[in-house]
């Protein structure tokens, strides 16, 4: 089969039980609930349990997505995990998830595009499926951002949360009416220092260089997100406005054709700016930022799942997904809902 259509046939989301409110953050850093709500729209975020890792969140979301599609892990041909907080440097979190789900002998790999990981993953899976490589792909965005946040930095720690979202993608006939329409991806590494997670000794750090294997330092120490918030904000608003225009133009659609905007949930003001550029009312926009904060690569599938479980998606509706991330890496996908 070549140039098949690609459909989301199962979807699931998982948020860890523990909820952290803005009031709790007031006790940690010099901030207020009012400031966080006004500047970001965030009211609370979920925090991973002490004994959980990213793969555990991914497994929970994946189980729901598989059940929703009416299939098991044995029916899957490929598994992709988008994450910026992997369980280990290697093996990939995708192989950990595969094993925890009881799957064997199909390709599994991670992709790293930070908050755009799911949008990148959807584009990658779609391309491979249209080319006939896979019939059923499990794509997961999963993050434990609380583990890499600097809890002393009020400019960043208020923004992030943990969670996972998963979709099952299935190939269908090439003349199907609905399904994935296409994607647009971008990255510009010139901006890489504006938003990053710093580790004192990253895996390829020159400090870890082994002089004839006689020198290696202890690489213990915490990673931490660093961000120039208002510069990120400015570029995000511009690039997201551009990419939604670009994808509509590429696939010959208009903003009035869109039924749902499913944006990356970083900041309500960034979402409002993109919706305004598309002339869309906020009641046609998936909004979870208040409840979840920024869950990085889990944010877009969790927002899509939120629409789904609340019965708001109808077959044939046109959905525009978009995300912006450290790198910077950003992109958008267009999907006609087929469930
Ligand atoms: N509580 C109270 N005050 C805070 C604060 C907090 N949590 N964080 C920052 N401030 C202060 C700053 O110190 C600054 O004070 P100053 O004027 O005395 O120096 C003031 O608020 C304004 O800071 P600024 O950074 O300009 O605020 P902002 O309106 O840009 O909002 C962000 C900050 C981080 C919420 C906003 O820039 C943002 O959301 N950026 C994009 C982040 C993002 O989307 N990242 C992920 C992309 S995937």
UniProtKB/TrEMBL annotation:
Gene that this polypeptide is encoded by: fabH
Region feature (ACP-binding): 265-269
CDD domains assigned to the protein according to its UniProt record, in alphabetical order: KAS_III (cd00830)
Organism domain of life: Bacteria
Keyword terms of this UniProt record: Acyltransferase, Cytoplasm, Fatty acid biosynthesis, Fatty acid metabolism, Lipid biosynthesis, Lipid metabolism, Multifunctional enzyme, Transferase
GO terms (BP aspect): fatty acid biosynthetic process
UniProt lineage: Bacteria, Pseudomonadati, Pseudomonadota, Candidatius Mariprofundia, Mariprofundales
Family: Belongs to the thiolase-like superfamily. FabH family.
InterPro entries according to UniProt: ACP_syn_III_C, ACP_syn_III_N, FabH, Thiolase-like
Quaternary structure, from the entry: Homodimer.
Beta-ketoacyl-[acyl-carrier-protein] synthase III C-terminal domain sequence ranges: 252-337
Catalysed reactions, as listed in the record: malonyl-[ACP] + acetyl-CoA + H(+) = 3-oxobutanoyl-[ACP] + CO2 + CoA
Function: Catalyzes the condensation reaction of fatty acid synthesis by the addition to an acyl acceptor of two carbons from malonyl-ACP. Catalyzes the first condensation reaction which initiates fatty acid synthesis and may therefore play a role in governing the total rate of fatty acid production. Possesses both acetoacetyl-ACP synthase and acetyl transacylase activities. Its substrate specificity determines the biosynthesis of branched-chain and/or straight-chain of fatty acids.
Active site positions: 115, 264, 294
Subcellular localization(s) per the UniProt record: Cytoplasm
SUPFAM superfamilies referenced in this protein's UniProt entry, alphabetically: Thiolase-like
Domain notes: The last Arg residue of the ACP-binding site is essential for the weak association between ACP/AcpP and FabH.
EC number annotated for this UniProt entry: 2.3.1.180
Entry's Gene Ontology molecular function annotations: 3-oxoacyl-[acyl-carrier-protein] synthase activity; beta-ketoacyl-acyl-carrier-protein synthase III activity
The keyword Cytoplasm belongs to this UniProt entry's keyword annotation: yes
Pathway(s) this gene product operates in, as recorded in its UniProt entry: Lipid metabolism; fatty acid biosynthesis
Domain Beta-ketoacyl-[acyl-carrier-protein] synthase III N-terminal: 110-189
Name under which the protein is recorded: Beta-ketoacyl-[acyl-carrier-protein] synthase III
A Gene Ontology term for the protein's cellular component: cytoplasm
Species for this entry: Mariprofundus erugo
């Amino acid at each position: 089969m070549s140039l098949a259509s690609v459909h989301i046939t199962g979807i699931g989301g998982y948020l860890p039980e523990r909820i952290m409110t803005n009031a709790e953050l007031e006790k940690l850093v010099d901030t207020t609930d009012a400031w966080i709500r006004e500047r970001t729209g965030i009211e609370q975020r979920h925090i991973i349990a002490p004994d959980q890792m990213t793969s555990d969140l991914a497994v929970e979301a994946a189980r729901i997505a598989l059940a929703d599609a009416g299939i098991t892990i044995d029916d899957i041909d490929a598994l992709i995990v988008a994450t910026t907080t992997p369980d280990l440097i290697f093996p990939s979190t995708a192989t950990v998830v595969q094993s925890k789900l009881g799957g064997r002998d199909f390709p599994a790999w991670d992709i790293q595009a930070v908050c755009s990981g799911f949008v990148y993953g959807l584009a990658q899976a779609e391309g491979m499926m249209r080319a006939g490589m896979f019939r059923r792909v499990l794509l997961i965005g999963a993050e434990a951002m609380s583990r890499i946040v600097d809890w002393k930095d009020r400019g960043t720690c208020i923004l992030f949360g943990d969670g996972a979202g998963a979709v099952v993608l299935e190939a269908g006939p090439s003349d199907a009416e609905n399904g994935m329409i296409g994607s647009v991806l971008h990255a510009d590494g010139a901006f890489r220092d504006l938003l990053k997670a710093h580790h004192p000794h990253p895996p390829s750090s020159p400090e870890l260089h082994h002089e004839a294997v006689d020198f290696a330092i202890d690489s213990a120490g915490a990673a931490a997100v660093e961000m120039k918030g208002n510069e990120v904000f400015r570029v995000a608003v511009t690039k997201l406005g551009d990419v939604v225009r670009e994808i509509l133009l590429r696939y010959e659609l208009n903003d009035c054709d869109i039924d749902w905007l499913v944006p990356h949930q970083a900041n309500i003001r960034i979402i409002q700016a993109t919706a305004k550029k598309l002339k869309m009312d906020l009641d046609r926009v998936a909004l979870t930022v208040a409840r979840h904060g920024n869950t990085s690569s889990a944010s877009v599938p969790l927002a899509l799942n939120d629409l789904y479980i609340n019965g708001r998606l109808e077959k044939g509706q046109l959905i525009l997904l978009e995300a912006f991330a450290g790198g910077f890496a950003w992109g958008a996908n267009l999907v006609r809902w087929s469930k």
